[in-house]
What we know:
Blueprint: H1 3-19, H2 22-32, H3 41-44, E1 74-75, E2 83-84, E3 87-92, E4 99-106, H4 118-131, E5 148-155, E6 165-170, E7 190-196, H5 207-216, H6 223-232, H7 240-278, H8 285-294, H9 299-308
Parallel strand pairs: 4-5, 5-7
Antiparallel strand pairs: 1-2, 3-4, 6-7
Helix pairs in contact: 1-7, 8-9
Amino acid sequence: MDYNDKIKKLYDAACRDVLSEQGIAAYIMKTCVEEFKDTPIKEIIRYIHGKPEVGAVLVNPQGEVTRIEALQNEDKNESESTVTFDIRFTVTAPDTGDEIKLIINLEAQNDYNPGYPLLKRGVYYCSRLISSQYGTVFVKSGYGKIQKVYSIWVCVNPTQKTEYSITSYHMTEKNIVGSVQADRHHYDLLNVVMICLGNKKYTELTGLLRLLNMMMVDNYLTKQEKRQILTDEFDIEITPELERGVSEMCNLSEGIERKGIEQGRIKTTIKTLNRYIRRNLPIDNQVLSDIAEDNDLTVERVREIAKENGLVIPC
């Protein structure tokens, strides 16, 4: 695993820790889960069953053999690769008392187009959440007990067309012949919600986008500033887990930023050296000193970069 993959994995884990906190999850539910749109944030937390789970348990999607006693965060069979549910938990709808299963998927950072439509993957995840209820929520022909499911995706770096949007996809009724009105609770069971952020500062946004952009995008904010904003503006309790997640995200963001700056300096240095070489211009100590100063590097580092990239310069 190279440096970038390692940092990405650690950053994704920190983001999951943050999103799984009940205070953050409540804000997401308030906006994205229709059943909670009229419920105050502070009250939403009490409808969550325990602490949202972030883990991995193998599930047999066939259901008729395996009995699942707890929430499962990983779904797999022998013929396909593992499917991971980043965060998964159950809530009770405030009005009907029905149980609802939710998964909040943190999409891989900077990978909104992984080679397939994320929306289809969201539908697939919802389908797995429903099929996995066999044997625990219902058995045999007890389909009336099937619980509604949501797959909520937080996309940090979406396309320009989709950024700063929150979109819900669900089943609806359409009469082809006649006029029938079925109970919506009997068919509206799968919901995919895409939350697309962007690079704006959180102060330019409102609501859930403001909260998530502040937490996951605004790298210029320190962990102290983020904690203060969570407390003062969003009235979210800073638990030890949330504190750890925020600190880790900030530390990793700083590392990613420093790595990007370093890579930019290296790229500019190589470009400048190549220009001198192509033109057969002398590269003396003064030239090396100027290149180093322009890129905030030492002369020794410039020589190392040249050597690492097979560029011959005077000793």
